[in-house]
Amino acid sequence: MLPAALLAASLSFAAPDADIAFSTAKELVVKYTPRNAGTFRGRFAAGFILRELSSRGVNARIDRFSAPTPNGEKHFHNVIAEWETVPDGEWVAILSHFDTKTGIECPGTNDGASTSGLLVALAAMLERTKPSGLNIMLAWLDGEECMHSYSAADGFWGSRHAAAKLKASGRKVKAVICLDMLGDKDLGISIPANSTPGLVSAALRAAAKAGAGDKVRKIPEYVKDDHLPFLQLGFPAIDLIDFEYGSAPGLNDYWHTKDDTIEHISADSLLVAGGIVVEMLKELQQ
Protein backbone atom coordinates (compact mmCIF):
# COMPACT_ATOMS: atom_id res chain seq x y z
CA MET A 1 0.00 0.00 0.00
CA LEU A 2 1.27 3.48 -0.82
CA PRO A 3 2.10 5.76 2.12
CA ALA A 4 -0.49 8.40 2.94
CA ALA A 5 1.85 11.25 1.97
CA LEU A 6 2.33 9.79 -1.50
CA LEU A 7 -1.38 9.20 -1.90
CA ALA A 8 -2.07 12.80 -0.95
CA ALA A 9 0.59 14.03 -3.37
CA SER A 10 -1.22 12.27 -6.23
CA LEU A 11 -4.15 14.65 -5.83
CA SER A 12 -3.75 17.77 -7.93
CA PHE A 13 -6.03 20.16 -9.78
CA ALA A 14 -4.34 21.68 -12.82
CA ALA A 15 -5.22 24.01 -15.71
CA PRO A 16 -6.69 21.21 -17.89
CA ASP A 17 -9.04 20.33 -15.01
CA ALA A 18 -10.11 23.98 -14.74
CA ASP A 19 -10.78 23.99 -18.50
CA ILE A 20 -13.10 21.00 -18.04
CA ALA A 21 -14.87 22.86 -15.22
CA PHE A 22 -15.32 25.98 -17.34
CA SER A 23 -16.47 24.21 -20.52
CA THR A 24 -18.94 22.07 -18.56
CA ALA A 25 -20.36 25.14 -16.82
CA LYS A 26 -20.67 26.92 -20.18
CA GLU A 27 -22.51 24.03 -21.81
CA LEU A 28 -24.83 23.71 -18.82
CA VAL A 29 -25.75 27.39 -19.22
CA VAL A 30 -26.03 27.44 -23.01
CA LYS A 31 -28.09 24.26 -23.38
CA TYR A 32 -29.93 23.97 -20.06
CA THR A 33 -31.12 27.43 -19.06
CA PRO A 34 -33.50 27.76 -17.37
CA ARG A 35 -33.16 24.64 -15.19
CA ASN A 36 -35.45 25.57 -12.33
CA ALA A 37 -36.09 23.13 -9.51
CA GLY A 38 -38.79 20.57 -10.09
CA THR A 39 -39.05 21.19 -13.86
CA PHE A 40 -38.38 18.97 -16.85
CA ARG A 41 -35.45 21.23 -17.76
CA GLY A 42 -33.98 20.53 -14.34
CA ARG A 43 -34.29 16.83 -15.13
CA PHE A 44 -32.54 17.40 -18.47
CA ALA A 45 -29.74 19.27 -16.70
CA ALA A 46 -29.24 16.35 -14.31
CA GLY A 47 -29.08 14.04 -17.31
CA PHE A 48 -26.42 16.25 -18.90
CA ILE A 49 -24.28 16.11 -15.74
CA LEU A 50 -24.65 12.33 -15.64
CA ARG A 51 -23.53 12.04 -19.28
CA GLU A 52 -20.54 14.31 -18.67
CA LEU A 53 -19.47 12.11 -15.78
CA SER A 54 -19.98 8.90 -17.72
CA SER A 55 -17.90 10.23 -20.63
CA ARG A 56 -15.02 10.63 -18.17
CA GLY A 57 -15.34 7.13 -16.76
CA VAL A 58 -17.14 8.18 -13.58
CA ASN A 59 -19.82 5.85 -12.26
CA ALA A 60 -22.68 8.09 -11.10
CA ARG A 61 -26.42 7.87 -10.63
CA ILE A 62 -29.48 10.09 -10.50
CA ASP A 63 -31.35 10.03 -7.20
CA ARG A 64 -34.96 10.90 -8.08
CA PHE A 65 -37.38 12.01 -5.39
CA SER A 66 -40.56 14.02 -4.91
CA ALA A 67 -41.27 16.69 -2.31
CA PRO A 68 -43.98 19.24 -1.50
CA THR A 69 -43.32 22.83 -2.58
CA PRO A 70 -45.35 26.07 -2.41
CA ASN A 71 -46.30 25.30 -6.03
CA GLY A 72 -47.42 21.73 -5.36
CA GLU A 73 -45.51 18.46 -5.31
CA LYS A 74 -42.49 18.48 -7.63
CA HIS A 75 -39.97 15.92 -8.84
CA PHE A 76 -36.28 16.49 -8.18
CA HIS A 77 -33.08 14.93 -9.46
CA ASN A 78 -29.81 14.84 -7.50
CA VAL A 79 -26.72 13.41 -9.19
CA ILE A 80 -24.42 11.34 -6.97
CA ALA A 81 -20.92 9.93 -7.51
CA GLU A 82 -19.00 8.02 -4.84
CA TRP A 83 -15.51 6.64 -4.26
CA GLU A 84 -15.44 4.18 -1.37
CA THR A 85 -11.88 3.07 -0.65
CA VAL A 86 -12.06 2.51 3.12
CA PRO A 87 -14.83 0.10 4.19
CA ASP A 88 -16.63 1.56 7.22
CA GLY A 89 -14.28 4.56 6.98
CA GLU A 90 -14.99 8.26 7.09
CA TRP A 91 -16.66 10.17 4.27
CA VAL A 92 -16.20 13.61 2.80
CA ALA A 93 -19.14 15.01 0.82
CA ILE A 94 -18.63 17.86 -1.66
CA LEU A 95 -21.73 19.68 -2.89
CA SER A 96 -22.91 22.04 -5.61
CA HIS A 97 -26.41 22.94 -6.73
CA PHE A 98 -27.19 23.20 -10.45
CA ASP A 99 -30.70 24.71 -10.51
CA THR A 100 -31.59 28.29 -11.45
CA LYS A 101 -33.82 30.75 -9.62
CA THR A 102 -37.54 30.40 -10.27
CA GLY A 103 -39.47 33.40 -11.56
CA ILE A 104 -36.59 35.55 -12.82
CA GLU A 105 -34.43 35.75 -15.93
CA CYS A 106 -31.13 34.37 -14.68
CA PRO A 107 -28.74 32.07 -16.57
CA GLY A 108 -27.25 30.86 -13.27
CA THR A 109 -23.72 30.83 -14.66
CA ASN A 110 -21.79 31.55 -11.49
CA ASP A 111 -24.66 30.67 -9.17
CA GLY A 112 -24.89 26.98 -9.81
CA ALA A 113 -23.22 26.17 -13.11
CA SER A 114 -19.67 27.19 -12.16
CA THR A 115 -19.35 24.88 -9.18
CA SER A 116 -21.32 22.13 -10.90
CA GLY A 117 -18.70 22.23 -13.65
CA LEU A 118 -16.02 22.28 -10.97
CA LEU A 119 -17.46 19.12 -9.42
CA VAL A 120 -17.40 17.38 -12.83
CA ALA A 121 -13.71 18.26 -13.15
CA LEU A 122 -13.03 17.08 -9.59
CA ALA A 123 -14.84 13.82 -10.34
CA ALA A 124 -12.68 13.26 -13.42
CA MET A 125 -9.57 13.95 -11.32
CA LEU A 126 -10.69 11.54 -8.59
CA GLU A 127 -11.45 8.84 -11.14
CA ARG A 128 -8.02 9.36 -12.69
CA THR A 129 -6.02 9.34 -9.44
CA LYS A 130 -8.21 7.01 -7.35
CA PRO A 131 -6.96 8.35 -3.99
CA SER A 132 -7.15 6.18 -0.89
CA GLY A 133 -7.57 7.09 2.75
CA LEU A 134 -10.97 8.76 2.45
CA ASN A 135 -14.36 7.87 1.09
CA ILE A 136 -15.62 10.71 -1.10
CA MET A 137 -19.11 11.58 -2.30
CA LEU A 138 -19.82 14.31 -4.83
CA ALA A 139 -23.40 15.57 -5.04
CA TRP A 140 -24.93 17.83 -7.69
CA LEU A 141 -28.08 19.05 -5.96
CA ASP A 142 -31.40 20.03 -7.43
CA GLY A 143 -33.65 22.60 -5.77
CA GLU A 144 -31.32 24.83 -3.76
CA GLU A 145 -33.17 27.96 -4.84
CA CYS A 146 -36.43 28.74 -3.09
CA MET A 147 -39.57 29.45 -5.10
CA HIS A 148 -40.80 32.26 -2.83
CA SER A 149 -38.84 32.50 0.42
CA TYR A 150 -36.73 29.97 2.31
CA SER A 151 -38.68 27.88 4.78
CA ALA A 152 -39.08 24.26 5.83
CA ALA A 153 -41.12 23.71 2.67
CA ASP A 154 -39.33 26.06 0.26
CA GLY A 155 -35.76 25.65 -0.96
CA PHE A 156 -32.90 23.26 -0.20
CA TRP A 157 -34.91 20.27 -1.43
CA GLY A 158 -31.88 18.47 -2.84
CA SER A 159 -29.64 19.06 0.16
CA ARG A 160 -32.36 18.16 2.68
CA HIS A 161 -32.97 14.91 0.83
CA ALA A 162 -29.25 14.12 0.54
CA ALA A 163 -28.57 14.97 4.20
CA ALA A 164 -31.45 12.78 5.39
CA LYS A 165 -30.25 9.84 3.29
CA LEU A 166 -26.70 10.29 4.58
CA LYS A 167 -27.98 10.33 8.16
CA ALA A 168 -30.05 7.21 7.60
CA SER A 169 -27.07 5.40 6.09
CA GLY A 170 -25.17 5.59 9.38
CA ARG A 171 -21.97 6.57 7.60
CA LYS A 172 -19.25 8.36 9.53
CA VAL A 173 -18.90 11.81 7.98
CA LYS A 174 -15.71 13.81 8.45
CA ALA A 175 -16.73 16.85 6.41
CA VAL A 176 -19.40 18.31 4.15
CA ILE A 177 -18.00 20.97 1.82
CA CYS A 178 -20.52 23.17 0.00
CA LEU A 179 -19.23 25.09 -3.03
CA ASP A 180 -21.20 28.00 -4.47
CA MET A 181 -20.50 30.90 -6.85
CA LEU A 182 -16.76 30.20 -7.19
CA GLY A 183 -16.30 31.02 -10.87
CA ASP A 184 -16.35 34.80 -10.37
CA LYS A 185 -13.53 36.43 -12.37
CA ASP A 186 -12.82 38.64 -9.36
CA LEU A 187 -12.68 35.71 -6.96
CA GLY A 188 -13.01 36.34 -3.24
CA ILE A 189 -14.15 33.34 -1.19
CA SER A 190 -16.06 33.87 2.04
CA ILE A 191 -16.52 31.34 4.82
CA PRO A 192 -19.69 32.26 6.74
CA ALA A 193 -19.98 32.04 10.51
CA ASN A 194 -22.34 29.07 10.29
CA SER A 195 -19.52 26.73 9.29
CA THR A 196 -17.89 24.12 11.54
CA PRO A 197 -14.80 25.72 13.16
CA GLY A 198 -12.46 22.81 12.53
CA LEU A 199 -13.31 22.85 8.84
CA VAL A 200 -12.84 26.62 8.73
CA SER A 201 -9.29 26.14 10.01
CA ALA A 202 -8.70 23.36 7.49
CA ALA A 203 -9.97 25.56 4.64
CA LEU A 204 -7.70 28.45 5.62
CA ARG A 205 -4.68 26.15 5.78
CA ALA A 206 -5.66 24.61 2.45
CA ALA A 207 -5.96 28.03 0.82
CA ALA A 208 -2.50 28.98 2.08
CA LYS A 209 -1.00 25.73 0.77
CA ALA A 210 -2.70 26.33 -2.58
CA GLY A 211 -1.13 29.78 -2.80
CA ALA A 212 -4.54 31.40 -2.47
CA GLY A 213 -4.52 32.59 1.12
CA ASP A 214 -5.43 36.09 -0.02
CA LYS A 215 -8.56 34.75 -1.75
CA VAL A 216 -10.27 33.32 1.35
CA ARG A 217 -11.62 35.05 4.43
CA LYS A 218 -13.97 34.39 7.33
CA ILE A 219 -17.05 36.58 7.57
CA PRO A 220 -19.28 37.15 10.62
CA GLU A 221 -22.53 36.71 8.69
CA TYR A 222 -24.60 33.54 8.52
CA VAL A 223 -25.35 32.36 4.97
CA LYS A 224 -28.26 30.17 3.89
CA ASP A 225 -26.83 27.55 1.56
CA ASP A 226 -26.86 23.82 0.93
CA HIS A 227 -24.61 23.11 3.93
CA LEU A 228 -27.43 24.09 6.30
CA PRO A 229 -29.46 20.84 6.18
CA PHE A 230 -26.27 18.90 6.94
CA LEU A 231 -25.42 21.14 9.89
CA GLN A 232 -28.97 20.73 11.18
CA LEU A 233 -28.54 16.95 11.21
CA GLY A 234 -25.27 17.18 13.14
CA PHE A 235 -22.75 16.83 10.33
CA PRO A 236 -19.59 18.98 10.27
CA ALA A 237 -20.06 21.31 7.31
CA ILE A 238 -18.56 24.38 5.66
CA ASP A 239 -19.70 26.80 2.97
CA LEU A 240 -17.21 28.26 0.48
CA ILE A 241 -18.98 31.04 -1.41
CA ASP A 242 -18.14 34.23 -3.31
CA PHE A 243 -20.96 36.54 -2.34
CA GLU A 244 -19.51 39.70 -3.90
CA TYR A 245 -20.30 39.08 -7.53
CA GLY A 246 -20.92 42.30 -9.36
CA SER A 247 -19.89 45.26 -11.47
CA ALA A 248 -17.69 46.83 -8.78
CA PRO A 249 -15.88 45.71 -5.59
CA GLY A 250 -18.28 44.94 -2.76
CA LEU A 251 -21.33 44.71 -5.01
CA ASN A 252 -23.43 41.63 -5.71
CA ASP A 253 -25.48 43.02 -8.58
CA TYR A 254 -24.88 40.11 -10.99
CA TRP A 255 -26.42 37.63 -8.54
CA HIS A 256 -29.90 36.39 -9.50
CA THR A 257 -30.03 38.64 -12.57
CA LYS A 258 -29.69 38.32 -16.33
CA ASP A 259 -26.06 39.46 -15.89
CA ASP A 260 -24.99 36.17 -14.30
CA THR A 261 -23.42 35.25 -17.64
CA ILE A 262 -20.43 33.34 -18.94
CA GLU A 263 -18.23 36.41 -19.49
CA HIS A 264 -18.26 37.05 -15.74
CA ILE A 265 -16.64 33.74 -14.78
CA SER A 266 -13.21 32.35 -15.62
CA ALA A 267 -11.25 29.10 -15.73
CA ASP A 268 -8.57 30.85 -13.66
CA SER A 269 -10.96 31.28 -10.75
CA LEU A 270 -12.11 27.68 -11.04
CA LEU A 271 -8.45 26.62 -11.00
CA VAL A 272 -7.97 28.45 -7.69
CA ALA A 273 -11.16 27.00 -6.20
CA GLY A 274 -10.28 23.47 -7.34
CA GLY A 275 -6.82 23.80 -5.87
CA ILE A 276 -8.26 24.79 -2.50
CA VAL A 277 -10.68 21.84 -2.50
CA VAL A 278 -7.85 19.42 -3.31
CA GLU A 279 -5.72 20.84 -0.50
CA MET A 280 -8.69 20.44 1.85
CA LEU A 281 -8.96 16.78 0.87
CA LYS A 282 -5.27 16.36 1.65
CA GLU A 283 -5.82 18.04 5.02
CA LEU A 284 -8.74 15.73 5.77
CA GLN A 285 -6.79 12.68 4.63
CA GLN A 286 -4.12 13.20 7.29
Tell me about this structure.
This protein has one domain (4-285): Zn peptidases (Aminopeptidase, 3-Layer(aba) Sandwich), CATH 3.40.630.10. Helices cover 38% and strands 19% of the residues. The chain is built from eight helices and eight strands. Strands 1-2-4-3-5-8 form a six-stranded mixed β-sheet, sandwiched between helices. The model is unreliable at 1-7 (pLDDT under 50).
Summarize the amount of helix as a percent range: 25-40%
* CATH homologous group name: Zn peptidases
Structural class: alpha/beta
Report on the biggest sheet: 6 strands, mixed
| Beta strands, count | 8
**Domain module count:** 1
CATH architecture: 3-Layer(aba) Sandwich
Mean pLDDT score: 95
CATH topology: Aminopeptidase
Low-pLDDT stretches = 1-7
Q: Approximately what portion of the residues adopt beta-strand conformation?
A: 15-25%
State the order of secondary-structure elements, H for helix, E for strand. HHHEEEHEHEEHEHEH
| CA-atom Rg in angstroms | 17 Å
- Number of helical stretches of at least 4 residues: 8
N-to-C span: 16 Å
**CATH classification class:** Alpha Beta
Shape: globular
Strand order of the largest sheet: 1-2-4-3-5-8
